[in-house]
Amino acid sequence: MAMSPQAPPDILFRNLRLGDGSRSAIAVVDGRIAAIGSAAETLSATNVVDLDDALVLPGFVEGHIHLDTSFYGDTWRPHVPYTAGFDVRERVAIQHRNMAAAAPMDQRARNQLELCIANGSSKMRSHVMVDASVGLKSLETIAAVREQYRDLIDIQLVAFPQSGILTCPGTAELLDAAFDHGADVIGGLDPASLDRDVKGHLDVVFGIAERRGVPVDIHLHEPNMMGVFSIEEIAARTRALGMQGKVAISHAYGLGDVSADTVRRVADILATSGVAIMTNAPGARAFPPVLALREAGVTVFAGSDNIRDS
Ligand SMILES: [Zn+2]
Prior knowledge:
- The chain has helices at about 40, 90-100, 105-120, 135-150, 170-175, 200-210, 225-240, 260-275, 290-295; strands at about 10-15, 25-30, 30-35, 50-55, 60-65, 120-130, 155-160, 185-190, 215-220, 245-250, 275-280, 300.
- By secondary structure, it is α/β, with parallel strands linked by helices.
- It folds into two domains: about 10-55; about 60-300, TIM Barrel (Alpha-Beta Barrel), CATH 3.20.20.
- It has nine helices and twelve strands.
- The strands form two sheets. An eight-stranded parallel beta sheet has the order 5-6-7-8-9-10-11-12. A four-stranded mixed beta sheet has the order 3-2-1-4.
- It binds zinc ion.
- Zinc ion binds near residues 64, 127, 219, 250 and 305.
């Protein structure tokens, strides 16, 4: 960016390294970067900060987190092991018990948010539970916390139907109302394995997306070909509504279970449909092959999927 020679920088950061390894300087005027690189090297300023060869990067994107269900900074609660493999409903029940005993949600959310900001995150997508038991309360709480940190970090909030949509009566209406209470993105969760009705689930999710003009981000833990089936249906809806570039699938664990041929076939569908994949790269389970997806042209991004939750 050009800067007139008449305006000396308020602060000149010198002796730093950019992401490509090159040495550089950064000039700041009115709290904004006005020059980087050779244009900044030659400037002089009264306020010069020597960064001693430190690496300077753009802010990190935390692409998937749950600010409402973090216990960061709260009393330690041990992990409850699976009884018979991963079961979403069992996990949700354990989480409800833990949350009832936890510190107030806004306090826990601020703890987690400050950890992320202090470690360099400047953009964040947080899913927030919307269901018949919590209604819009969690969303309103997290939206108020977002306001307090508006100068430090940009946060998108996803209305997340953690208890299902069709199997949790009242949730579809709440999801729609969420967009009058601070939500930016419509979420979904395991249309086949949880709601057992892929078409019905996606009718609600994409119906709201179309009506409200909002992006989509669906949690998909479904394994093997069940997961692939849901991915294909989500991609078809995306193309039909011209929503390429506005739809993400979080986890997509099924892509870690199937053959390389199937991954290639689905990767082409994702790329041409403009559907992105979020991975939290869990240690205990197969997850989508990141390089194969990127080679096919799929947008892949990452998130912690929470820090110290149930
Ligand atoms: Zn999640």
